[in-house]
Amino acid sequence: MGRRKSRGLSTLEACLIFLFVAMTGACIGLVVVYFVDKDDSAPHIEGDSGCGGPQELTGESGTFTSFNYPNSYDNGKSCTWQITVDPDKVIHLWFEEFALEDTQQCTGDLVTLRDSLGIIGKYCGYSKPKPLVSLTNHLTVYFDTNDRKTDQGFKAHYKAVSPELATEIAGAGGFLQGDMGKLMTPGFPEQNYPNGALYQWRITVPEGEKVRLTFTSFDLVPEVCGDFVEVYDGHKAGSSSGGKLCGGTMPKPVESSSNTMVVRFKSDNSLTSKGFSATYTMSSLPPVVIPTTTPPTTPRPTTQTTRPPTTTGSGGPVIVQGRKGVIQSSGFPNPYPAHLHSSWKISVSKGFLIKLQITDMAIPGEMGACKEDKLVISDNYSTLGTHCGYLLPPVVVSASDTMSVTFQSDGRLTDRGFSARWEAVYPEDITEIQGCGFSSQEETGIIRSQNWPMNYKANTECMWNVAVPLGKKITLEFTDFDLEAKDFLTSKCYDNIMVYDINGPFCGTKLPASIQTKGTRLLIRFHTDLFTEAKGFRAYWTTNPSLPAPTDPPVQPNPWDDIPIDWPSPCGKPAIPPSVVSRIVNGEPAVPHSWPWQVSMQVWPDSQPEPKFSHTCGGTLIHKNWVLTAAHCFMRYADELHRWRMCLGKHNLTYTEPSESCYGVSAIYRHEGFKYPTVPTVEFDIALVRLNVEVKPSDEISYACLPSEEEVLPGGKKCYATGWGDETGDSLNPKAAEELNQVALPVVPFDTCKRMDYWWFQVKSSMICCGYTLPDELKSVCQGDSGGPLVCQDSAGAPWEVHGITSFGPVGCIMDKKPSVFTRSSAYIPWISNVIRRDMYNEHTSGCGGPKDLIGTSGSLSTMGFPGGYDNNARCQWNIQVPVGKLVHLHFQNFSLEESQMCLNDKVTLTDTVGSLGTHCSHVLPKDVVSQGNVLHMSFSSNDKTVDTGFAATWKAVDPVEAPCGGSFSSERGEIVSPNWPNDYDAQSACTWHINVPSAKMIHVVFTHFELQAVNVLGNCVDYVEIFSGESMTSLVVIRFLSNGADQQSGFRGYWTTDRNISSNHHSCVLMLHCQKHL
């Protein structure tokens, strides 16, 4: 028996090595994926995190990733990020993606979080850490890797937040102040605490006092203190710990040496229990009386219980029961033994099904052709899959409450084996888990393959589980059927449908005959591999075949479907003709500006502190607002629009040309189906970029035409690819062209390109292959540029149409039977039109129905569906504009939003030319608001939780004299008073004084009385007066007063004057914000 120190590549993976996608930096020519040895001698840049990007993160928010993300990180890496935010804020940290080497106790690759008290936690594997809120404004993140396995890595975000948000974000914990208070694990005592939890309480009592913490109930899992409470004597560095408290024994009261204390609770990923409750008081108060209870002596597993990994050697099956768990091959992650035969029988409670997800797999063999070493999964009905190799199979769900897993090996090569997570799930969750299929008890219904009538996805498992009343049988009728055909040599159906326990597998295009079940249950499984996809199938079931077949509901039109697109005319007609007379094989510099739709997409990488743009991809101008390009060009910086610019009218990249114009980016739309590298194929490699301003065409800048929908070019058709691509054909040492190049490429028929000795399963019907087949012509295929155009003419003199978008090619660009592959534009005409129409719709609509810009003298607006419930995750915007000289008067007729403290959830925000006019939420009807100026902006947003009926409002134009308080003034002296002065001002007041005097004068604002609501616990003004100055800093002043809905005070009184002789007993100010009782 031999053991490999590191795994090699299967035939499939050897094929995948030719697939490439640009991850970052310059996309030179056709972008390529290649494998090189790690250079450990690379110097470490001072101030660098070690993973690229800065070590010091000091902004209000930010993002950081592991090295090479989303590609695999390197071995032997050590990275550090120091996050620091404003002193009055704390840090909300969360992980968007997380995939590290999975080891027990995180002894391999891991992320470590540390604060002033020490290490908060260590994380590894594939479970995302829960969102975390720091205790202070500083947090350190470490990422360390060993010299063994790597994975995709992680992407993390942080944001500065108010301390009072800690409880809402983390689910428990927070910042507690006052003489006394309570703290407990969430759900206590009715619910057990969750696995993988981290809750932190920072307790502060008045200066001079000490904190006494008394536990009133305590019931944690006793095993090895995996779940524990730790109490710190303060929150600053060096604060001592009283040790870890766990089990079911009530701890003694703990007292701090100062006025602060930190309580930290952590749970692991195994058993959970009831939790704890505690009371804190000032030490000067009487001790808390603890109620007499009998604490339980054993933990109570719950639905969150995850058992330790279960391994087995040879012998009978291991019986695994419970709600969730992990099974692994013997010795995992070390190589498994030879001649192994292991089996597990997983059983869950009646009424549940079993979800099994393989999280790591390294078994010698090739997918679809496993030999002696293999992992076999089955349930009571059938085999659910036989797996080997290194690509993870899809999630499977059993059809009953039992599942069997068998793993066997021969006496030859071994590898890590596998690790898998199982969990009891409800039948109604099938669709959410697998992304397809469902469970139903209806007597009739329709079944469709995923994406129907578009091609189904690769590497999926779908299950439909139908049960009808006793005494009835089910008839299944297929109406459409188009799956991958049987293998010619083996007659095996690689993509197939099985109907249990009756018939199958079905594949190909022959419509299966009508099927009737023997009992009351219909179980259908649909399996697809990684290779060829097809249209899929549609079927229906019924218990009464004599009734008409069920029909699909009509497709609901989008509100933007009928919006016309002003496509450019003419298009595809260069003012400067390109040189296309001779047959160009090796490529040559293009005639300057003869391909006027060519775009140089330029990026400002985050490694540059100041804006410095460089060419990274190509694109095609198809509309005055739109550039067509490849989705893989935006695998980095897709959400950072300021890092991109689109340059037109360029020929030479080394200097600025008189003809060029560069445009900013207002939106980037990548195709929703683009999933590389999660899915090992570059399908749906198309994107649209909206420019921030309209293009002005010229002789050097104009548009390419789009082809007809689904137009497929014949084999041998000559087209032209253009770009500033690599001129050497050496993708390891590329040399970018200074001038735009062009190359003539004939179309390779799809049936040829999809052959196993060409691109096989990597090429899809939505792609075009172009290139030469003779050995002396192979060097032609390296010209071009990722995202750039492949253009063709129907005939000589006809307009040029962009038929392809440069997508991928072989390593080194030059390889026999590996032509260049382009995204076929004609396959995406509906998608292109839909994106542009939707963008046009969103630009002019509010998001709640109706127009965004409301212009006139009166009108109304409301949340979507009012008075029915509004949508979750809504984002609505209105811009109300009345005639010049008038003001906007807004009146709410109804108002009911999700209950929220400090308007952190669903809310309405009002602004005008001066600034904020208030933020409103919950069920309090806002008071009428009058804008300063003739424009009022209104926005509404909702989260993904509770919804309510929403609001309805009316608006109208009013004269400035109708403002309920404040007003416009041109006198050199006047009085300002809060509403109702000297009585308490109104809740939700919004008053604006606009004072404009001759330019030679200086305005002084004087307050004689001032008493507003005090600052909140975060030190922020709640009710306040804000003073703005005009450009001259003298002759124009705007004063705004805003109040919230509680704790009104007597307000303020003052005046403005241009007289320099102001009494020294009073306070004058400009450009300040005031609250509290203060002069």
From TrEMBL:
Domain Peptidase S1: 584-837
Record domain CUB: where: 51-161, 172-283, 314-425, 436-544, 848-958, 965-1079
Domain of life: Eukaryota
GO biological process assignments: proteolysis
GO MF annotation: an example: serine-type endopeptidase activity
InterPro entries named in the record: CUB_dom, Peptidase_S1_PA, Peptidase_S1_PA_chymotrypsin, Peptidase_S1A, Sperma_CUB_dom_sf, Trypsin_dom, TRYPSIN_HIS, TRYPSIN_SER
Bias kind Low complexity: ranges: 300-312
Pfam families in alphabetical order: CUB (PF00431), Trypsin (PF00089)
Region described as Disordered: 287-319
SMART domains given in the database record: CUB, Tryp_SPc
Transmembrane regions: 12-36
Keywords assigned by UniProt, alphabetized: Disulfide bond, Hydrolase, Membrane, Protease, Repeat, Serine protease, Transmembrane, Transmembrane helix
Alphabetical list of PANTHER family matching this protein: ATTRACTIN-LIKE 1A (PTHR24251:SF50), OVOCHYMASE-RELATED (PTHR24251)
Protein name: Zgc:154142
Originating species: Amphiprion percula
